[in-house]
């Protein structure tokens, strides 16, 4: 390992090197902490405790030296969206209202990562209350894209996308209610997985929408994401939304497959919604990705979809009342402590009739059934663009841009919101760059609990294209 | 179109939350768009005996068949 700067390693290689005794966790943590200190201008880290991080790293090294049993993430520095509670540590949730909130319990996701031996070295930037697809935040300022700070990171897991891309941490947790893992993964050029609804426990995270909230990992490679999923996935009686479905051994599955061919894998290309009106440059990148998948042996075919324009709207009918219910006391008592756009979105939830909300919830099953009996009866996964346009700038998505801003921001989650409503898993995979120098991505959408299938397709695609080996020049 | 003034009055009476004119107009636009989508998606035809647990049932079924 002496010839490789440790922060350049993948999560998996770093963890394996620590386990093998060829790399010290302390050296890795120091490298990450130094990079965090040098990249403050990105505004992707909310808080870091250098002393605590190095102390934990030294303890990890001591465990290796003592020959203790080690978890699959032993000694690897991670950072997480600032809404994953840890008992006794503040979680500000990107807000003024929750600033200084200290939970008395630890989230299930962090518990699992702790068990696996990971270091938790930083709390990361996020959109206010995880509402907002751009990475703007009225209280924290905008998170900067490591590829070019003039551009947005995507949100709401803005810091998770930026910190992983900038090689400040080896992986990060995000949350995805309408695209919040996938969008920053796409705009920052890393891999992001929104798992099936119910695959990962949400116990101990800041709630936003009981029906749609998902926890998901972001990391540099598909195999890194697979290792994180091996740790995170599973039933939790503390989150009644989790499903007691068997959990695949995701990383071993990729190792067995070898990541080389996709012979016989059926991939559907939607004939509506996802490709309607997308930018020509983005369309070219997606077309190139589809040719790569075909070259690997996958069979691509056009598939019609149920009306996704409606589905995207039904996601809002489900989400906004649930969020408004949670926020009602603060909407009443502290309305001025919200950013204007977040407050306006929450207020929309107050006017949705209960009957409409329940209709949207009921239609969720009907429409999922139509997806399973329609497109997913013909194929193993769908491929779509992740973004309809090249990643926009901070200025284009700022309130100062007026009505133009609403149009740009309104389109950001176009590709992601229907998937959230349908509860399906989706993987955002880097697919090259647009002429502005920013990453773009494809989205692979799977059947419920078919995360292993998506990771298998993503792994083969990654090994054929090497897009995930590109890092921003920091 | 739903009347924004009505919405302001009702939300203040129900929840004690004050909407300014712009908030009310935005909320009404969103409401009308939502109701239109529900109608188009067949919400009015769900019927008395529809399976309201269908979403979760399908997840459980999918999860049980790896």
UniProtKB/TrEMBL annotation, chain A:
This protein's record includes keyword Protein biosynthesis: no
One Pfam family hit: Amidase
PROSITE patterns: AMIDASES
SUPFAM superfamilies xrefs: Amidase signature (AS) enzymes
A GO term for molecular function: transferase activity
Residue ranges of domain Amidase in the record: 28-455
Alphabetically ordered keywords of this record: Transferase
InterPro entries in UniProt: Amidase, Amidase_CS, Amidase_dom, AS_sf
PANTHER family, alphabetized: AMIDASE AMID-RELATED (PTHR11895:SF176), TRANSAMIDASE (PTHR11895)
Protein name per UniProt: Glutamyl-tRNA amidotransferase subunit A
Originating species: Skermanella stibiiresistens SB22
Automatic annotation (TrEMBL), chain B:
Superkingdom of origin organism: Bacteria
Name of this protein: Uncharacterized protein
């Amino acid at each position: 390992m002496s010839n490789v700067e440790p922060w350049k390693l993948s999560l998996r290689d770093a963890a394996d090197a620590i386990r093998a005794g060829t790399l010290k966790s302390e050296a890795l943590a120091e490298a990450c902490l130094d990079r965090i200190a040098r990249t403050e201008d990105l505004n992707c880290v909310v808080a870091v405790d250098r002393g605590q991080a190095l102390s934990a790293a030294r303890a990890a090294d001591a465990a290796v030296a003592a020959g203790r049993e080690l978890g699959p993430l032993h000694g690897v520095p991670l950072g997480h969206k600032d809404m994953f509670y840890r008992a006794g540590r503040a979680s500000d949730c990107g807000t003024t209202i929750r600033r200084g909130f200290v939970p008395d319990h630890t989230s299930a996701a962090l518990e699992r990562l702790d068990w696996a031996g990971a270091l938790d070295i930083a709390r990361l930037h996020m959109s206010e209350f995880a509402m907002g697809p751009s990475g703007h935040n009225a209280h924290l300022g905008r998170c900067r894209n490591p590829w070019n700070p003039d551009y947005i990171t995507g949100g709401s897991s803005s810091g998770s996308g930026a910190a992983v891309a900038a090689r400040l941490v080896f992986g990060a947790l995000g949350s995805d209610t309408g695209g919040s893992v996938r969008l920053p993964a796409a705009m920052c050029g890393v891999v992001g997985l929104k798992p099936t609804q119910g695959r990962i426990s949400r116990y101990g995270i800041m709630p936003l929408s009981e029906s749609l909230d998902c926890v998901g990992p972001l990391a540099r490679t598909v195999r890194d994401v697979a290792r994180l999923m091996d740790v995170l996935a599973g039933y939790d009686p503390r989150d009644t939304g989790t499903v007691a479905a068997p959990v695949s051994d995701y990383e071993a599955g990729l190792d067995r497959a070898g990541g080389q061919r996709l012979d016989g894998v059926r991939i559907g290309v939607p004939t509506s919604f996802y490709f309607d009106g997308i930018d020509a440059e983005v369309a070219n990148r997606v077309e190139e990705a589809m040719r790569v998948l075909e070259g690997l042996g996958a069979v691509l075919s056009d598939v019609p979809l149920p009306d996704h324009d409606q589905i995207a709207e039904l996601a809002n009918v489900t989400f906004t009342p649930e969020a408004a219910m949670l926020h009602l006391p603060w909407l009443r008592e502290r309305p001025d402590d919200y950013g204007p756009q977040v407050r306006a979105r929450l207020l929309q939830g107050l006017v949705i009739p209960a009957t409409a909300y329940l209709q949207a919830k009921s239609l969720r099953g009907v429409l999922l059934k139509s997806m399973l009996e329609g497109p997913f009866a013909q194929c193993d996964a769908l491929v779509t663009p992740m973004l309809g346009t090249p990643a926009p700038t901070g200025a284009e998505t700022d309130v100062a841009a007026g009505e133009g801003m609403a149009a740009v921001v309104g389109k950001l989650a176009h590709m992601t919101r229907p998937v959230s409503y349908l509860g399906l898993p989706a993987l955002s995979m880097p697919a090259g760059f647009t002429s502005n120098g920013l990453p773009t991505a494809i989205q692979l959408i799977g059947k419920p609990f078919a995360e292993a299938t998506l990771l298998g397709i993503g792994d083969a695609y990654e090994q054929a294209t090497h897009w995930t080996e590109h890092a921003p020049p920091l | 179109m739903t009347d924004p003034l009505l919405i302001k009055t009702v939300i203040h009476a129900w929840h004690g939350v004050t909407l300014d004119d712009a908030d009310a107009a935005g909320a009404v636009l969103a409401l009308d768009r939502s109701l239109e989508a529900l109608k188009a998606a067949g919400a009015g035809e769900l019927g008395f005996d529809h399976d309201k647990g269908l979403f979760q049932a399908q997840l459980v079924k999918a999860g049980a068949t790896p």
